[in-house]
Specification:
Oligomer: single chain
Strand order of the largest sheet: 1-2-3
Helix content: 55-70%
Length: 293
């Protein structure tokens, strides 16, 4: 069972690394071409692809870090490196957006000449690269990291479409303002994905309940997992990383000699229904406040 789990993580890491190399390589080509062609839309799309690359890198790092054993000072190992990487990604994305918006405003005031042919060619190639990376990720192991990376890549497809549209409009009409206008559209896409990532990261930092889980449902599942369980209190659920969900709770029991059996049933229920793989449960004997009842 453990070997299969490691194999899955290695498969996820390889998929993310391949996608990372392809995306980063083309982002560099697109940025250079955008600079030479004087196309802000192309540079903006390259920046968007670069943020995708960083998201892929975070995913690959998380898959690698999850295999690192705990230490005396890091009891959860290096799983929280994913959170630090995500925060860095958000800051980096916002810096890119700020530079592109300032440049776009300047170009709207004084539009420069843009080589529409180069923009159209490289933008089309970027669209094909994004389609290929999306296909690669869809064929790999579907972890939280690869699904998150897929969202970035799919949003980047729209950025490539914007770059292609800029090239077509410039070639067909010679209307140069389309380039900074579409570059600002790409910035909106970056801001949307960045803000979603920021909110998700802050929820993890604040030890919030993992997305998609409800405390009331978890409590009900624990209470119904074994006949001897009479109640649950001090219930806390949080996310260590995208691969690890933890829980702590006090479980009230009618008979403590049934605790081992109840513990096994609760652990199975938590893993199967909620994906919680690190439960810490403390049994307590149910107190009878009214002996006549």
């Amino acid at each position: 069972m453990g070997a299969g789990h490691d194999h899955g993580r290695q498969s996820s890491t390889r998929t993310l690394l391949i996608a990372l190399v392809v995306t980063t390589g083309f982002a560099i080509v697109e940025a250079i071409t955008g600079w030479l062609a004087n196309s802000l839309a192309l540079i903006g799309d390259a920046g968007h692809m670069l943020t995708d690359s960083m998201a892929l890198a975070v995913g690959a790092l998380a898959a690698w870090a999850a295999k690192r054993p705990p230490t005396a000072t890091l009891s959860y190992g290096w799983q929280r490196a994913e959170v630090l990487g995500a925060l860095f990604n958000v800051i980096f994305m916002y810096v890119i957006v700020a530079f592109i918006v300032v440049a776009a405003i300047q170009r709207l005031i004084d539009p420069p000449n843009v080589e529409g042919g180069s923009v159209l060619l490289v933008g089309t190639l970027g669209l094909l690269v994004n389609i290929g990376v999306a296909w690669l990720l869809s064929r790999g192991e579907q972890t939280l990291n690869t699904r998150g990376a897929m969202l970035h890549v799919m949003s980047d497809l729209l950025g490539s479409v914007a770059a292609v549209g800029s090239g077509i409009v410039v070639l067909a009409t010679g209307w140069m303002p389309i380039d900074p206008i579409l570059s600002m559209l790409i910035c909106v896409l970056i801001l949307v994905s960045s803000t979603k990532l920021l909110l998700e990261t802050l929820r993890v930092v604040m030890a919030g309940v993992p997305k998609g889980l409800e405390l009331a449902e978890i409590q009900a599942a624990i209470e119904s997992s074994h006949p001897s369980v009479t109640g649950v209190h001090h219930l806390h659920v949080w996310e260590v990383s995208s691969h690890s969900r933890a829980l702590s709770a006090h479980v009230e029991m009618r008979a403590l000699n049934e605790w081992q059996e109840a513990l096994e049933q609760i652990a199975k229920t938590l893993r199967r229904e909620f994906g919680i793989n690190h439960p810490t449960l403390q049994p307590e004997l149910t107190r009878c406040h009214d002996a006549t009842q």
